[in-house]
Specification:
alpha/beta
Amino acid sequence: MALENILKIIDPVKASAIEKALDGRDLTEKDIVELLRSGGLELTALTMAADLLRKRIVGDIVTYVVNRNINFTNICVMGCGFCAFSKDFRSEEVYFLPISEIVRRAEEAWRYGATEVCIQAGLPPRIDPYHYVHIVEAIKRKIPQIHIHAFSPVEVVYGANLAGVSVEEYLKTLKEAGLDSLPGTAAEILDDEIRAKISPGRISVETWVNVITTAHKLGIPTTSTIMYGHVENEHHIAKHLLLLQRIQRETNGFTEFIPLSFIHREAPMWKYNLVPGLRPGPTWREVIALHAAARLLFREEIPNIQASWVKEGAKMAQQLLEAGCNDLGGTLMNESISTTAGATSGQLMRPRELRNIIRSIRRIPAQRTTLYKIIKTYYNEEDETELDKIENPEEQFGSYWQLVKDPRFKRYVRQKN
């Protein structure tokens, strides 16, 4: 059935919101809430409209980046209810990678074709205030060409506070050291009441916005994210999305939007029943509706909508490519944070696997840079890369579970703490 015919028979409020988006008009909070509540034929219409807009805006190319995650420590002074990765420094399961090991991992990733390293970690006590700066400097000395996508707004604030300088001054120092872009994580839901429930003591909405907009002002691009499926409702999500849209209109600094499903299995607030009304992540319907609604809202303003295979799994990510998404994220090589929360999709997606996912829905795969410059478009399958040939990623790159048992990095923890 054609989209225009479906729009005639579904709820007129939802049909009107879809038509507004297709006509290029702004959506209101009420429009977004209605779209997020879509089901049945309404959801079909929403996904068809999102897919149509995706084709208009970015065409049939689906991108991915070859990258490695380096989560250099799981020691953290905070105890966010959704985070199963962080540990108190007295725990037996802590680790801390020295800068030499971080650089070694970055060099290894570069040899396997990575163009980016993504660096995020816990907030360890008694850390050198400029430790983040030293990490960036050390990597750039060895591999000046690699893109460093590093440090969430929480880490930036932590470093600035320890150093006794403003966020702007700290970001300038990071940029001068070689930081290329910032993850827009730590956003969760941009509502202080919700944040107080799932991550008390974490940075406020105002602080998050300040870090992001300051980075944009300094010429440091960032991603934008949302973490949903816990205690928020559609109005919280709609306000979050509209805030991101407002920031983008002011700064044009977001490279992409990445919805992140709450992974509940090992999250402390789920395991220990800490938050009343907590849900075990979003439903299939909610995941589809959010990605599609984001496409209708952001249109050309944030043209890249990412489907996270780490959070959703390969099959769901593939479905999301037909609901407005045009990017599959990165190969990762060493994803740890979602893994510790209970995600089951593994720690590496080989480029060949990403291309197969894309081709199976008759779209065109392309490797990109962090900032969405196309490196190579794969109209036909090419020879396997060295990264494609890896059979056992944990054996090659190690895993989180090996890290927490490695005595080399226990010694470093004791020296630091």
